[in-house]
Amino acid sequence: MPNPRPHLGEPLALDLLNTRWISTEGRQDLLTDVPGVRQWLADNDLDLPADEPTRQALITAREAILRAVKGDTADDLNAVLAHGRVRRALTPTGPASLPEVADPAHLPGWLAADNLLHLLAGTPERIKQCAHPNCVLFFLDTSKNGTRRWHSMAACGNRAKATRHYAKKTHSD
Fold first, then answer.
1. What does DSSP assign to residue 47?
2. Running DSSP on this structure, what letter comes out for residue 147?
3. To which H or E segment does residue 39 belong?
4. Poorest-pLDDT segment among 86-90, 136-140, 146-150, 168-172
5. Are 132 and 3 in contact (CB under 8 A)?
6. What does pTM read for this prediction?
7. Given a cut of 90, is residue 1 above it in pLDDT?
8. SS (H, E, C) 49-77
9. What is 73-103 written as a DSSP string?
10. Three-state SS at 159
């Protein structure tokens, strides 16, 4: 089945936020069912079970990440993070940071919340929501000067330019 989402490839926390999007058919949500969870796990190379408890934990993590990104509250994100911890270990391949989560259903959401902490510790100002008024997608601005505005220039950027061009043309006639 082809992936229905319009934007892939963001860091895990932002990719979880991007499981909701707006299409020509209206609002979409990949996490409405277990096959959608399976798709998201596969998209992110997470070889973990997809089931109803994982779906519920991912939705909780997604809402917590959204509230943290928007600056509303950290309490919900901290509640997600409370389900696990990082254990340091020396493995045959060298030092490692290993996630430990008691309930496997919470692992994917915990990994996404942990990823958000890394993003916030590095370049929080580069976590952005697409500037198009009809877009709900998020991206990590990796442009040289940090001024990217659209999740995709080809999609939202061109639509905004076309709208401005049409408005100028109709006002000048």
1. -
2. -
3. helix 34-43
4. 168-172
5. no
6. 0.88
7. no
8. CCCHHHHHHHHHHHHHHHHHHCCCCCHHH
9. -SHHHHHHHTTEEEEEEEETTEEEEEEEESS
10. helix
